Amino acid sequence: MRRRFGSICVALMLLSASAISANAAESKSKLAARGRTILQEQCGRCHAVGPVGASPLPIAPPMRTIYRRFLPRELQAELSEGMVSRHKEMPQVEFSDQDVYAIMTYLYALSRRK
């Protein structure tokens, strides 16, 4: 009886850990989708936002390459403070901390695709 109870407890712990992991993955997926939406609305006029394709404005790098150009902390600071560009046409957009986290999650997911 004791052995059976122990097996049931282990099974319940594994199911619980699996559910937590699934919820975390779903949460990251939703966060990344939000990041993509933010980038599409704020940056998509000039930059390619998706995993493939050229930017609408040829001099604007695709967002999928931005993550590789900066250290994560630098990119986070740039997004929070408003990306500074050498091009006067690029508007300065300051993102909230929550938006920066969503954008970073999306850009990280893009950088992991191969």
Q: How would you portray this structure in words?
A:
- The structure is a single chain.
- With 114 residues, the protein is mostly helical.
- The protein has helices at 2-43, 63-69, 72-81, 97-112.
- It has one domain (30-112): Cytochrome Bc1 Complex, Chain D, domain 2 (Orthogonal Bundle).
- It is globular and about 35 Å long.
- The N and C termini lie far apart (50 Å).
- Mean pLDDT is 78; it is low at 18-23.
Briefly say what this structure is.
With 114 residues, this protein is mainly α.
Count of folded domains: 1
For the record, the CATH class is Mainly Alpha
The rounded distance between the terminal residues' Cα atoms is 50 Å
Strand content: under 5%
Q: Count all strands and give the number.
A: 0
Q: What fraction, in percent, of the residue positions are helical?
A: 55-70%
Query: How many distinct helices?
Result: 4
CATH architecture classification name? Orthogonal Bundle
In oligomeric terms, what are we looking at? single chain
Q: What is the overall shape?
A: globular
Please identify the structural class as seen in this structure. Answer: mainly alpha
Order of helices and strands: HHHH
Low-confidence stretches: 18-23
Radius of gyration, Cα only, in angstroms? 20 Å
Look up the CATH topology. Answer: Cytochrome Bc1 Complex, Chain D, domain 2
